[in-house]
Design a protein that fits this description.
It is a single chain. With 84 residues, this protein is α+β, with helices and mostly antiparallel strands. The chain has helices at 8-25, 27-46, and strands at 3-5, 52-53, 59-64, 69-78, 81-83. A hairpin with a 5-residue loop joins β2 and β3. The longest helix has 20 residues, at 27-46.
């Protein structure tokens, strides 16, 4: 089963999302937003083919319908890891 590994840019994006929402909805809700995004990404461990095809080869995109975010997922860099 693939293992989800956040890249440094992905972690930075999550930090930016928190920093964007915290002044608007408060730290607790901003943290919940990030947690919900991470929970959606964890589904990739069970369903690595979820999402939609990207214009880039070997990349799928996971669209977060509740939020204005899109996560590009590089398909299976190794047999045991996915990176995004």
């Amino acid at each position: 089963m693939p293992k989800i590994v956040l890249t440094d840019p992905a972690q930075s994006d999550l930090d930016d999302i928190f920093n964007h929402y915290a002044p608007i909805v408060g730290d607790d809700e901003a943290e919940q937003i990030v947690i919900r995004l991470l929970e959606q990404l964890e589904h990739l461990e069970t369903f690595p083919g979820m999402g939609r095809p990207s214009l880039k080869p070997d990349v799928r995109e996971v669209v977060f319908t509740r939020y204005p975010f899109l996560a590009p997922i590089v398909s299976m860099l190794t047999p045991t890891r996915s990176r995004f």
